[in-house]
Amino acid sequence: MDLGISGKTALVCASSKGLGLGCAEALAAAGVNLVMNGRTSETLLAAADAVRSEFNVTVKTVACDITTADGQAEAMAAADQVDILVNNAGGPPPGLWSDWDREDFIAALDANMLTPIALMKASLPAMMDRGWGRVVNITSQSVRAPIPQLGLSNAARTGLTGYVAGTARQVAGSGVTINNLLPGIHATDRADALDGGVVAAQGITLDEARAQRAATIPARRYGTRSEFGAACAFLCSQHAGFIVGQNILMDGGGTNITM
Ligand code: NAP
User: Fold this and answer.
1) Which of 49, 89, 104, 177 gives 20 to 30 Å between its CA and that of 150?
2) Is the CB of 144 inside a 6 Å radius of any atom of ligand 1?
3) Residues whose CB falls within 8 Å of the CB of residue 235, separated by 6 or more in sequence, listed in order
């Protein structure tokens, strides 16, 4: 399917690995020029080179912490214009409800709520002036059903979800859509880190921890970054202009809910 977005420019935050990289690759496959981001320069440059040579699109890189005001300004400045914004950053650490202090919450809110909001505020006005724009926020299945050990993530991402629910409906009339993609478990470094906690707690191997988790998912496997990226690219396509303010689960059926 032609997504109808060839020649557009996307800022894909936290895209040197994992789900962000999957989104960057799928957008590049649709002919979208990219600004890619990550903190580790070496990983970012290698990922950008691979995307450039596979998809023949323009790829700029901004090595910075996207959760800082300076990083956000640098990333925005690298794009001549941002037609498509994919918001993403690392997830907060796991723990118990009683573990976290104010500073922990502020860090989680900065990374997973206030950063995407700042980037939306920076890019929405020009999108609205041009009468076209797409924003996809990578959140988590935890906004539908809380994950007990990820209380910081549950809190920050639900806050972002509330902001998007209201804002998406205020900008849709200008041809701009905002939607959230909610990953369940996907085979990335983040999943390895979470499974590493199970390894330590239960004294099992990483493969056993993965098999144990996969057995709890109706699809009986982890998602892939290319599946995730394809969904993101569709939400950014011309065909998705009537999808507004939605929270789309990609979890292999793992969240046991009806709607
Ligand atoms: P990942 O494999 O660990 O990749 C994270 C990417 O983000 C890397 O490219 C990393 O590069 C970059 N990054 C992290 N923090 C950054 C920052 N402050 N500024 C700029 N770049 C940053 O993680 P993932 O699995 O793709 O997860 C992406 C998001 O989805 C996370 O918020 C995660 O919590 C959420 N999520 C993931 C899953 C899953 O199963 N994978 C499930 C639910 C939710 P550098 O480290 O070099 O900066």
Assistant:
1) 177
2) no
3) 134, 136, 177, 179, 181, 243, 248
What the block records as the tokens of 119 is: 């980037």
pLDDT of residue 158: 98
- Distance (Å) from CA 4 to ligand 1 centroid: 28
Which of ligand 1's atoms lies nearest the C-alpha of 39?
48
Gyration radius of the chain's alpha carbons: 18
Question: How remote is the CA of residue 29 from the centroid of ligand 1, in Å?
Answer: 21
Question: Is residue 63 within 8 Å of 44, Cβ to Cβ?
Answer: yes
- Condensed to tens digits (0 to 9), the pLDDT of residues 84-118 reads 999 999 999 999 999 999 999 999 999 999 999 99
**Which phi and psi (to 5°) does residue 119 adopt?**
-70, -35
**Closest C-alpha residue for ligand 1 atom 3:** 190
Residue with CA at minimum distance from ligand 1 atom 14: 90
Distance 130 CA to ligand 1 centre (A): 30
pLDDT in tens, 240-257: 999 999 999 999 999 999
Question: What pLDDT is attached to residue 138?
Answer: 98
pLDDT tens-digit profile of 181-209?
Answer: 999 999 999 999 989 999 999 999 999 99
**At 172, which amino acid appears?**
A
